[in-house]
UniProtKB/TrEMBL annotation:
Organism phylogeny: Bacteria, Pseudomonadati, Pseudomonadota, Betaproteobacteria, Burkholderiales
Record domain Succinylglutamate desuccinylase/Aspartoacylase catalytic: where: 41-273
Protein name per Swiss-Prot or TrEMBL: Succinylglutamate desuccinylase/Aspartoacylase catalytic domain-containing protein
SUPFAM superfamilies, per the entry: Zn-dependent exopeptidases
Cofactor: Zn(2+)
Organism name: Paraburkholderia saeva
Keyword Metal-binding: yes
Length: 381
């Protein structure tokens, strides 16, 4: 393993942050015994891009320990890049005792939204691509590398997004470890990637798997998968474009779910998955059952407070919900009036906010649903 340090753009005289990445190399057995795509497999894993999502960071710490040991035994069959602190900018944002890790205080931007797009890529690729999908993948990655090399970030925020993307754009698999506020283990990926990601959801014990090709948020995972999806839509069948990068966001439960037991379980699940993909040598562990079938992200119901008041939860995280079940009460402390919010879908109550007093319009939580009902941007701010 070697440690790499990338300096971010200095936002002000006398300040300098850096992004630290750990690079694990495949053992020598793979280079001699294997050839082609399996030998060149690259895995990119980062945690806590939303800097205040600490469970993901502890998972990365324990994952690093396992990778060090696997590398020492020559058991790695892929290049693995691990970034346990994906957001040193957000990590420094303490405001009157509160940790603000989701949004950049300088710009108000969400750290996991609006990652870069490559609008001229298809035009540039069209003449270069041929009939060999594997060769086309390499050509597209070369074009991406060139485009990234030319980018000139203006702010520290942009330089962070660019530094992360430069580590990840040529990975075959991107795992972005986050957590929610109060939540069960759940994952986000695309319909196209789901057959390949499903074993990871099983090993992790995901209680919800939410699928969308394009949520409209241009989150880190989507910024990778959409590059290839857009090219697939635009290229003729004679120029096949593979699914260059499989990408998944893993929500490691809720923000306060920081424990060695849980983090070890999640790190082990990721290792089991990498073994099943051939990225780590070994006998794949038997696949546990999928706890809940995948559902469309557009089918999950999002609840908002119709009025302000004291929020009292009527359902527990992870509960199986039927349409009509009460999820939240909002109690007005002056009139004693109670407003009950009920689910309109059958599904799993997979996440809720950590607040207990709400303002009108505040988001409250989400329940999965099998029928796509929402349109537009599918992820919240
Ligand atoms: Zn997050």
């Amino acid at each position: 393993m070697h440690k790499q340090t990338t300096s971010l753009l200095s936002p002000a005289v006398g300040t300098q942050r850096e992004l630290v990445s750990f690079h694990f190399a495949p053992g020598s057995a793979s280079t001699s015994a294997q050839s082609g795509s399996s030998a060149s497999q690259k895995i990119y894993i980062q945690s806590s891009l939303h800097a205040d999502e600490t469970p993901a960071m502890l998972t990365a710490v324990l994952l690093k320990r396992r990778l060090l040991e696997l590398e020492a035994r020559g058991a790695l069959a892929a290049e693995i890049v691990l970034v346990p602190v994906a957001n040193p900018v957000g990590l420094g944002q303490y405001v009157v005792g509160q940790f603000v890790g989701r949004f950049d205080l300088a710009s108000g931007r969400n750290f996991n939204r609006h990652f870069m797009q490559f609008p001229t890529l298809a035009e540039r690729a069209r003449d270069l691509l041929g009939a060999d999908a594997n060769r086309n993948r390499d050509i597209i990655r070369d074009l991406l590398r060139e485009e990234l090399a030319q980018q000139k970030p203006l702010t520290e925020f942009e330089s962070l997004q660019l530094a992360l993307f430069k580590h990840s754009f040529d990975a075959d698999l991107v795992i972005d470890l986050h957590c929610s506020l109060e939540a069960v283990m759940h994952v986000y990926t695309t319909e196209a990637a789901w057959p390949s990601i499903e074993p990871l959801a099983r090993y992790l014990g995901a209680e919800a798997s939410l699928l969308a090709t394009n949520s409209g948020a241009q989150a880190f995972d989507e910024a990778h998968s959409l590059i290839w999806w857009h090219l697939q839509q635009q290229m003729p069948a004679s120029k096949p474009v593979p699914d260059g990068t499989l990408a998944v966001t893993v929500e490691c439960r809720g923000q306060r779910d920081v424990s060695y037991e849980i983090a070890q379980q999640d790190a082990d699940a990721i290792v089991d998955y990498l073994v099943s993909r051939g990225a780590i040598r070994g006998e794949p562990k038997g696949l546990p059952p999928l706890r809940m079938p995948a559902t469309p992200l557009a089918g999950s119901e999002q609840f908002y407070a119709p009025v302000s008041g004291i929020l009292v939860h009527r359902a527990k995280i992870g509960d199986t919900i039927r349409a009509g079940d009460a999820l939240f009460d909002i109690v007005d402390p002056l009139t004693d009036e109670t407003t009950t919010i009920r689910s309109n879908t059958d599904g799993v109550f997979y996440m809720r906010r950590a607040i207990r007093f709400v303002t009108a319009g505040a988001p409250l939580g989400r329940v999965t649903g099998t029928r796509a009902v929402r349109t537009g941007v599918l992820l919240g701010a």
